[in-house]
């Protein structure tokens, strides 16, 4: 009886290793050239269709899986919805230890602001002033491949990015990353918002 119980515990099941740590970018797969991948309001095949994705679409950011991981939440434009995960193939991971995804950007409101990370600089754009770039000095993480937490030190700017469901408060998009921006200059010392790895 003990052996049977042990075998049942060791039987193949869906494990955390089978489910990628999000966010990641995916491509559409298995959809014919004359068809589309439907985006649905809920994670089931009978839910209302609210949009579609072309069969050759790449760089789709997945920010959440449904319970059981059969459906994936994707963003598109100012909205998002659920697509069947079996029609998505994960692209090579953009996450490397000690670095930021090349397409990472963050946005926030009250006031509206955005920040991009490129060519060794963090560039902050706010309605109060012209975009300002800060040279990135350090990118810290916790040292393992599945980690999505980052702390970026760039002169007077510090950006802390954590894996957490986030809403921009303006659209139906959903994000898998939240950002806190701390500034040691200006009259707005702290900003909060959401981040995406969708290429610009």
UniProtKB/TrEMBL annotation:
Annotated signal peptide: 1-17
Gene3D superfamilies: SH3 Domains
Superkingdom assignment: Bacteria
Alphabetized UniProt keyword annotations: Signal
Protein name according to UniProt: Peptide-binding protein
């Amino acid at each position: 009886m003990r052996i049977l119980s042990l075998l049942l515990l060791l039987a193949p099941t869906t494990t955390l290793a089978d489910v990628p740590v999000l966010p990641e970018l995916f491509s559409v797969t298995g959809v014919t050239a004359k068809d589309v991948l439907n985006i649905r309001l809920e994670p089931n095949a009978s839910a209302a269709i609210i949009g579609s994705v072309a069969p050759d679409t790449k760089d789709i950011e997945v920010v959440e899986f449904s319970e059981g991981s059969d459906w994936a939440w994707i963003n598109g434009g100012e909205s998002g919805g659920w697509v069947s995960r079996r029609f998505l193939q994960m692209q090579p991971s953009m996450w490397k230890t000690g670095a930021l995804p090349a397409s990472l950007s963050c946005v926030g409101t009250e006031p509206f602001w955005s920040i991009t990370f490129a060519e060794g600089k963090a560039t902050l754009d706010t309605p109060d002033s012209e975009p300002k770039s800060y040279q990135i000095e350090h990118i810290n993480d916790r040292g393992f491949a599945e980690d999505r937490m980052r702390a970026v030190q760039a002169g007077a700017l510090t950006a802390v990015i954590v894996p957490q469901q986030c809403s921009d408060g303006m659209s139906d998009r959903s994000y898998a990353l939240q950002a806190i921006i701390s500034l040691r200059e200006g009259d707005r010392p702290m900003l909060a918002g959401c981040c995406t790895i969708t290429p610009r």
